[in-house]
Amino acid sequence: MTVPCEILITMKRAMRRNFKNMYGSTLRRRVGPKTMRICIAVLSAILVVGTAGVAFAMRFNLSTAGSLELLLIVLIALRWGRIPATIASVAAVFCLNYLFMPPIFKLTVTEPENWVSLLTFESTALLVGALSSKARINAAQADLQRQRTAKLYELSRAILLLDWRNSTAGQLASLIREMVGVESVDLWVIYDPARSSTDHDDLLSEDSAERTYCEGRDSDDLDLGTSRRVLRLGTTPIGAMVLRGWNIDSLLADAVASLAAIAFERARSLENEKRAEASRNIEQLRTAVLDGLAHAFKTPLTAIQTASSGLLAIGQMTETQTELVSIIDGEAGMLNKLASRLLQTAALEAKQVRLSRSKFSAVALIESLMQTQEQSVRSRIEVIAASPAIFVEADAELIRLAVLQLVDNAVKYSTVGSRIKISVAQGDVETLITVVNSGVTIRAEERDRVFERFYRGADAVRGPAGTGLGLSIVKKIAEAHQGRTWVECEGDTTSFVFALPNHRGVSNG
Q1: DSSP class of 180
Q2: Secondary structure class of 425 (helix, strand, coil)
Q3: Among 109, 144, 179, which residue terminates a domain?
Q4: What is the CATH number of the domain that holds 384?
Q5: d(CA 147, CA 403)
């Protein structure tokens, strides 16, 4: 016997109406999840009993009624899940037993084969219900994953189009509200709290972003519809995010937090890049100005030094006049030397220096350079080398200038009368020229900055006069040779190391 189409249509319409009633937005807000589950279970049992009554009234046989009940159980499993389907299957067994198995209207079974039929029906109903419920769950998860992926894709695309000149937090909060579907968003970053965004009045409340960062843990509140996430770059926390008023999806919240952290870090990187570019432009301008000034100073200084030297050579001056002209000559020479340093620094900064490489003995170069120093300086210097035949391939004039700057720095900042040691050592990769002096050491936080142009440490400012150019020239010369330089301090000893890479053909002789 076939099932009339009218019955199926009636059942479908009834299920739609009941589904809308159960899952309507108004009812969802007024009843809790537990009450909702109980209502669905009761409705499932009522639908099964009603279907059995209709089948009995239309005089269907056991086979047709059982097929109809099985179809209904499958629909319930697909729509509402495994538990309502299980309750419906139990109710169906009782209805089939009561209405379609002799003796009718009694919950007893006289024939053994009827017991088998009931057990088979119940097992089939439970199995089909479980499979249908699983299929429903898988379909729901797949749909949720598609929605989540679509939201994240759109959010990531929108983040790429952010206007990085304006507030990143404000723009990001608007995007999250629009694309994720939340009522309000709080964003807070540790390195720039002023640029954070909040839709909440009390920043220190329990669910504020700053409070979430301080607690350092992620959490979800299903009752309040609130998700709290710490923004992390790798394992390093940089801020926090709070989402309020949404259907909580933990995985989506985690992904949004990761995108927000990346967006903040990108904005920070772009800002640092702009600052670096601005610094480079300023540095280039300053280099050009110093270059121009140095060139402008050289001509009058040369004339002054020539005139003063001529007056000293002619003589015929009083003792006072000779002393004054000597002072002019000495200071003019110092200014001329400073202008030359400025020109050398500008050329090194602009990478305009062309190295004139040659193979020479580093020890011999240093010893000859020391012979040009004043006796008071020369007597304090000790050159240490395992062998005089330590050869390097470099620009001899620039290496001479670098060593001279290191010695000049050591003389200025060492204890009066203390020894200054210059050691030369050659390894497999580098040749090291180390200038060691005793006196006030350089503070740990300043050791990387002493090679910056015009930088003078806190202790150096209170010491002898200087320009802050010497060590920067040393660093530029090392870099021009693809070498490096650094400073080491231990106790009252300061060591400046100038390292030159060994080239092919250069060895200990």
Answers
A1: I
A2: strand
A3: 144
A4: 3.30.565.10
A5: 67
Extract long-range pairs of 31-36: CB within 8 Å, 24+ residues apart.
none
Q: What is each CA distance from 84 to 73, 123, 508, in whole angstroms?
A: 9, 15, 90
Residue appearing with tokens 């330089």: 485
The CATH number that applies at residue 325 is: 1.10.287
> Can you read off the two tokens belonging to residue 57?
């009234």
Quick check: is 178 in a domain?
yes
Domain match, 133 and 174 both: no
Domain that holds residue 361: 357-501
d(CA 493, CA 481): 27
Q: For residue range 124-179, what is the model confidence (pLDDT) as tens digits?
A: 767 776 777 777 777 777 777 787 787 778 888 888 787 777 778 888 888 888 88
Q: Is the pTM of this model over 0.85?
A: no
In a domain, 151, yes or no: no
Question: By CB neighbour count within 10 A (0-12 exposed, 13-18 middle, 19+ buried), where does 143 fall?
Answer: exposed
Any domain includes 410 = yes
Give SS3 for 239. strand
Q: At what angle do helices 82-100 and 33-57 cross, to 10 degrees?
A: 30
Q: Helices 82-100 and 112-160: crossing angle, nearest 10°? A: 160
Amino acid identity of residue 126, one-letter, is L
The three-class DSSP label of residue 450 is coil
pLDDT digits (tens, 9 = 90+) for 199-245: 554 444 566 888 888 888 898 888 888 999 999 988 888 889 999 98
Nearest to 81 by CA among 28, 119, 135, 148: 135
Dihedral in degrees, nearest 10, Cα atoms 503, 505, 507, 509: -150
Looking at the fold, whether 126 and 166 belong to one and the same domain comes out as no
Pairwise CA distance, residues 316 & 194, whole Å: 74
309 shares its domain with 390: no
Which residue, 233, 254, 271, sits at the end of a domain? 271
Tokens representing 505 are: 């053909």
- 128 and 200 share a domain? no
